[in-house]
Amino acid sequence: MAVWRNMWSRNLLTFCVCVFLVLHAINARPANMSASKDKVPVSKDKDENEILPPDHLNGLKMERDGHLNKDFHQEVFLGKDMEEFDEDSEPRRNRKKLIEIFTKVDANKDRSVSAKEMQRWIMEKTEEHFLEAQTENKNSFRAVDPDGDGHVTWDEYRVKFLASKGFNEKEVAEKIKRNEDLKLDEETQEVLESLKDRWFQADNHPTDQLLNEQEFLSFLHPEHSRGMLQYMVKEIVRDLDQDGDKKLTVSEFISLPFGTVENQHAQDVDDDWVKERKKEFEEVIDANRDGIVTMAELEEYMDPMNEHNALNEAKQMIAVADENQNRHLELEEILRYSEYFTGSKLMDYARNVHEEF
Known about the structure:
The chain has helices at 2-27, 33-36, 46-51, 72-78, 91-105, 115-144, 154-164, 169-177, 186-202, 213-220, 226-240, 250-254, 264-285, 295-302, 307-321, 331-336, 338-342, 353-356; strands spanning 152-153, 210-211, 248-249, 292-293. Helices cover 60% and strands 2% of the residues. It is built from 18 helices and four strands. By secondary structure, it is mainly alpha-helical. A two-stranded antiparallel sheet has the order 1-2. Strands 3-4 form a two-stranded antiparallel ribbon. It is globular. Residues 33-57 are annotated as: Disordered. Pfam families: EF-hand_5 (PF13202), EF-hand_8 (PF13833).
């Protein structure tokens, strides 16, 4: 009996170990493009988010890391109303809200939306994102300028940043004052070096190594400054440019970062991602169709307040849903393609449309 119990115990232990290894293998998914390209993870720490440049910038076609902004259409169509069309919102309420938006876009009230009307609307919604960033920046600037003198030094910012990462604020301030080694881990040091580059880039002429509120806005949101937008473009080109010519070919633009694809579904996602980037490169970013994207072309593509870009975007949005090919959008078409415009699918889009309108 004792021998049987020992054998049973060993078998049970072996079974538990196997289960643990299988579960660990499932969760320990190797890094690959399909896992990382949607959005760069953002810290949940409120204090850190207040003073760190955001990875995602509303109303810009491209993320800081060079990935396409998959929510761009919704951002420039909905503006500050994006949150109202979340996954849990009620479909009938969403439909009613979308009808209200249509009546606002339709400026001349002819029950259809032209490219010019959509362009005007896109510019208005982009401006909403700009104003929202300015409001948030006031709070962020106060967080790094507690004495309220209207200027922040790099060292003052560095103290607040490290405090948001869990370091003791007083100890860090003292070490910086005495010019002592902060003994940071490699990852934190790399983030600081990157932030420092952006910091001094945001310091307008004459440079004084101090940022005022407007300069701090450019530090957090490069779309608010021509110089910082150019710097963001340089960073993207630097990360994607493989031959060092400071230009991008289509092969460089669609190259997947190093990683592994562990299953067919992930491969399909990556293939779709490549096709999407190739189409965007050839049909939109490469303005002169020479197969090369220069920094100037990428900067124009990235500029959120470029009226020519807004008109092209308006035409593209109309083309997606323009089923009767009249180069205008009717209410039924926008409701039918609600998922494209709002991210929410309306199952009963056709019911009583004219009555509600």
